[in-house]
């Protein structure tokens, strides 16, 4: 549901403003989608993008009275597949061969 105040404000805009607003909305959607992919118990220390895969160096808190928390940091690879975000545990070091391939199997 679009709030009434936003809708009536949008209806008053001219075409060029509407195009700019559409770009803004698309950017906000993609940023929000990226944040939602990230579980709350992970702290991202580094990000490396290669091809369609994003590698993140993360510190993970499992949060169940664990004495080893937080764990890592470890590298994880993330990519989109069939509309879903897939991930793969890489380890303590991000190998250069891993990033050259672009896609993690
Ligand atoms: Zn733990």
Describe it:
The protein has about 100 residues and is α+β, with helices and mostly antiparallel strands. The protein has two domains: about 1-35; about 40-105, no CATH class. It is built from three helices and four strands. Strands 1-2-3-4 form a four-stranded antiparallel sheet. It is elongated. The mean pLDDT is about 80. Bound molecules: zinc ion. Zinc ion binds near residues 62, 66 and 71.
Q: Order of helices and strands, N to C? A: HHEEEEH
How are strands sequenced across the largest beta sheet?
Answer: 1-2-3-4
Helical segment tally?
A: 3
- Count of strand segments: 4
Which structural class should the secondary elements be placed in?
Answer: alpha+beta
Q: Which whole number gives the mean pLDDT?
A: 82
Named once each, the bound ligands are: zinc ion
The major sheet is characterized as: 4 strands, antiparallel
Q: Please compute the radius of gyration using only Cα atoms.
A: 19 Å
| Overall domain count | 2
Which percent band covers the strand fraction? 25-35%
Query: Spans with pLDDT under 50 lasting ≥5 residues?
Result: none
Portion of residues within helices: 25-40%
Cα distance spanning the termini? 40 Å
Shape: elongated
Summary of the model, kept short:
Helix content is 35%, strand content 34%. The chain has 105 residues and is α+β, with helices and mostly antiparallel strands. It has a four-stranded antiparallel β-sheet.
